[in-house]
Amino acid sequence: MNKIDYLRISLIDRCNFRCHYCVPEGAKLDYLLQQELLSYQELLNLLKEVFIPLGFTKFRLTGGEPLLRPGVVDFVGEVASLSGCDDLAMTTNGFLLDKLAKPLYDAGLRRINISLDSLNPEIFDKMIGNGGKSRWQQTWQGIQTAYEVGFNPLKLNVVIIRGVNDSEILDLAALSIQRNWHVRFIEFMPIGNSKLFDESTWIPSEELRRMISQKFGLVESSIKGNGPADVFKIPGAKGTLGFISQMSECFCDKCNRIRLSADGWLRPCLLNETGQINLKDALRNGVDSSQLIEQVRDLLFLKEEINFKERDRGTVGNYGRTMSQIGG
User: pTM higher than 0.85 for the full model?
Assistant: First the structure.
């Protein structure tokens, strides 16, 4: 079991996209009210008084769409300056990056993952549930801007869905050839839109690797990330290709993270809510930080049990929260 030193922090459950693998088309979501979110100060207190003392050194800001939350640039600066924060990253859909990439970089953010599931504007807009307004060009511009201001390497997250965007696998992989872009292929999961999952099903990473290898060749990369991706590269390419295979190739033994939702629930596993802790209520009820440290430490031990004894949980059945509500 890896040392658990990586916390994914959801800043908001709202998103300006409604990607079909996250939210079923036409579904109504009950979003959190402002007072239900952990405040920035509460988050900073948790980092300084609980997580960093427990040995957490890597933090990723997620959503929903984290750039929708007011004050996010200043918060990035606060987290980046914390003693003990060795790595700060963000996952975003990129739509607001054209204006915010440089302020985020100047605030101390150095690593960014951008969701990009299609290079075809029509397929892209269909996948994100754009409501009739194309968002491809602004998203693509945000990616370019992020790279130009210094996010290098830059990671692109791709969820491949059979019959939707699987015709673009080779084109998406080719993005890693000329630029130091790291493309991450993520297997479609049964969270968020179980109906689409049942209809389309996921494509195993091995199938993607075989396709890419036949076209370009594929070798293992010496560059490894902070997460569970198996990393390869096209020979001679500047970037890499990662494969996150949560459905076909269990990586529980390599997992080093836990997740904090925007409303303060700390969960040990994306696919398992067993033992989750309501840190927001604990903070607002005056629970001492030493008690919180013990509760979180207990959860870390529980995570080991979940990873090795309940690793198959999540491959069938429905989940009560969408990806955007969990924090991805």
Answer: yes
